[in-house]
What we know:
Mean pLDDT: 96
Largest sheet: 4 strands, parallel
Helix content: 40-55%
Shape: globular
Radius of gyration: 13 Å
Structural class: alpha/beta
Number of domains: 1
Low-confidence stretches: none
Strand order of the largest sheet: 1-4-2-3
Oligomer: single chain
Number of helices: 4
Number of strands: 4
Amino acid sequence: MVDIRIKRVYDAVSPEDGTRVLVDRLWPRGVRKTDLVMDLWLKEAAPSPDLRHWFGHDPARWTEFGQRYRQELVQDSAAVQTLCDLARKGPLTLLYAAHDTAHTHALVLADVVRHAVQS
Length: 119
């Protein structure tokens, strides 16, 4: 079973996190680069700027956002492949900065990677 977690960049670091990958296109507000514990910043795994702006963290657009984001991930499979490779090696934690933990792209990304690894 693949172990993929998601965590806000503001949450405490844990030894169980494994490889920590920031999956936001923009650097998180209020966090100094020297303070964020991460192994990789994979901007390419984040939604495109156009999709991010269209979504605007509007829960009413969540379902359609997920569909559009999955299409983007299929078109740029290199980022997904990188995450799959890391997930096969051990625990993987996807880091994001959004306040809304129920409507974050990291949930969709984790699901896509989980399915890709298990296929």
